Amino acid sequence: MSAVAVLGAGSWGTTLAVHLAGAGHEPRLWDHDRGHLDAMAAARENRKFLPGIALPPEVKVHAELEVALGRAEFTLFAVPSQAVRDVARRVRGAGGKSIPVCVAKGLELGTLKRMSEVLRESLGDPDPVVLVGPSHAEEVSRGIPTSVVAAAMDERRAREVQVLCSTARFRVYTNDDVAGCE
Predict the structure, then answer these.
(1) What per-residue string of b and e applies to 67-90 under the rule 16 or more CB within 10 Å gives b?
(2) Whole-angstrom distance, CA of residue 164 vs CA of residue 20
(3) Phi, psi of 138 (to 5 degrees)
(4) How far is C-alpha 16 from the geometric centre of its chain's CA atoms?
(5) How far apart are the C-alpha atoms of 74 and 72, rounded to whole Å?
């Protein structure tokens, strides 16, 4: 069982937290919007972005970033692409030392950098993992079979994310072509 900080309580972050709980891990879901988190914790559901999908007891909702990051082995960045740099800087400032995994898609406005490049710069980590694929939160949250790719220059890191996320209905392949996968 791995402790995982999931940063971003939108549909994809919530889905991944639910998925990781079902895979036997300990996800901690964080978001900048305390009111949204309070509503989720009370209802045990993300009614705003993922109605109808219950949060299992293993999913812990935290408004304090430091608490969500505490002893996490992996940190999933599921925030909007325009927030990745700011959140990554906050993670670095909080002393986060886990393997960064980016599930945010797109390019940063202004710099046109890929999300892995933004994380590399902001965290000082030379090889963040990107988890990408033709997937939809609504489908994954309902157990519809899905395949994605964990890409990193370091094959070991990609395989660690593969082991973390793989289930019978969520197949993770690995690749070292980070730019191509993004």
Answers:
(1) ebbeebbbbbbbbebebbbebbeb
(2) 8
(3) -60, -35
(4) 7
(5) 5
Residue with tokens 């082991």: 163
CB-CB contact of 174 with 151 (8 Å):
yes
Nearest to 114 by CA among 158, 174, 179: 179
Biggest alpha carbon distance in the chain? 41
- 4: which 2 tokens? 């995982």
Burial label, 129 (beta-carbon count in 10 A; 0-12, 13-18, 19+):
buried
| pTM attached to this predicted model | 0.96
Residues in the chain: 182
Measured CA to CA, the distance from residue 105 to residue 42 in angstroms comes to 30
Give me the average pLDDT of each 10-residue run along the chain (182 residues).
96 98 97 96 96 97 96 97 97 92 96 97 96 94 96 97 97 97 96
